[in-house]
Amino acid sequence: MLYGISNELFISNVQSLVDNESEANTKATSSFGWTRYHNLAEIESWLDDILATYPDVTEGFVVGKSYEGRNIRGIKISYKADNPGVFIESNIHSCEWITSATATWFINELLSSTDDLIRDLAENHDWYIVPVLNVDGFVYTHEKDRLWRKTRQPSSYSSCVGVDPNRNYDVHWMENGGASDDPCEWNYAGPHPFSEPEVKAMSEYLGSIKNKVNVFLAFHSYSQLLLAPYGHTADETPDNFKDMMKVAKAYADAVDALPYGTVYKYGSAAGALYRASGGANDWAYQEGIKISFTVEFRDEGRFGFLLPPAFIIPNAEEALSGIIALLDECKKLGYLHLN
Length: 339
Hints:
- By secondary structure, this protein is an alpha/beta fold.
- 36% of the residues lie in helices and 14% in strands.
- It has a single domain (23-332), classed as Aminopeptidase, CATH 3.40.630.
- Helix 3 crosses helix 10 and helix 7 (241-256) packs across helix 10 (312-332).
């Protein structure tokens, strides 16, 4: 301890984790599954297969295009009309591979599981799921830099590339030190709100269907947290913050009841983690989606963004149990009204 500040080294050799992850991916089966992490082309091919296999209850949609011209794709799952809607955004931070792996596993469960609880979950909600929002960055993590976080749009006044897309929404943008104005920083908010085509497209798409969406979940890693608004300040909370904490507790309790021993904490983003202005869940809340969370998946720092593939299914099972409980609590509190 130095000057009263303690520290603990979690990862002594990051490259070894990158190498181990790559080796595990190489040894895994070549078919699509959840024993390894998949690149964008593989995810999109799998999504095409899912849409072809379940044409009566699925519909593909395109959120928009990325800076490098890639489509940002999503899937809607709907078994009947007038269901309450749940929107899941995943992999806005490109290095967080566990998020798209969990999102694809979750899609597969909604469509193929015969478990009564999952069937109820699937058939009594409309699901809008975007497995990979930051498509350019995601490709870059597979081809160049495993730990790349940001978008890939160059800066007009710096040699540094990219913006943190989860600081780029037009909601308390750059307030209270919740982001950086330095293009070389990991949490650079961009030159102005919605400067990133991926974020602007997402805001326009979600804005166009917001009257159909009751719950917004942004999948992230890592820290094992459920983060409600607000991100820009810990000095104030939303009007329904107590309800959101009941919902978050239901998720955490459901995960805790599983045999893995994973513990989730919860609170506001600024209160439980750190100030983060211009984030997606704050923007969704601002737009009227009153249950809006960032879900930070496993782990607490042992592997960080380099969570080994062996943890994909356990993490996904935790997310499924948590979401079942979260939506059940939302229903009890009256948030799953039909629009």
